Amino acid sequence: MRDFYGTTLPLPLMLGTARYPSPAVMEAAFRQSAAPVATVSLRREQGAGQAFWDMVRGLGVHLLPNTAGCHSAREAITTAQMAREYFGTNWIKLEVIGHADTLQPDPFGLVEAAEALCADGFEVFPYTTEDQVLAARLVDAGCRVLMPWGAPIGSGLGLNNLHGLRSLRAAFPDVAMVIDAGLGLPSHAAQALELGFDAVLLNTAVAEARDPAAMAEAFALACRAGALAAASGPMGQRDMAVPSTPVIGKAWL
Ligand SMILES: CC(=O)[C@@H](O)[C@H](O)COP(=O)(O)O
Question: What is the pTM of this model?
Answer without folding.
Answer: 0.93
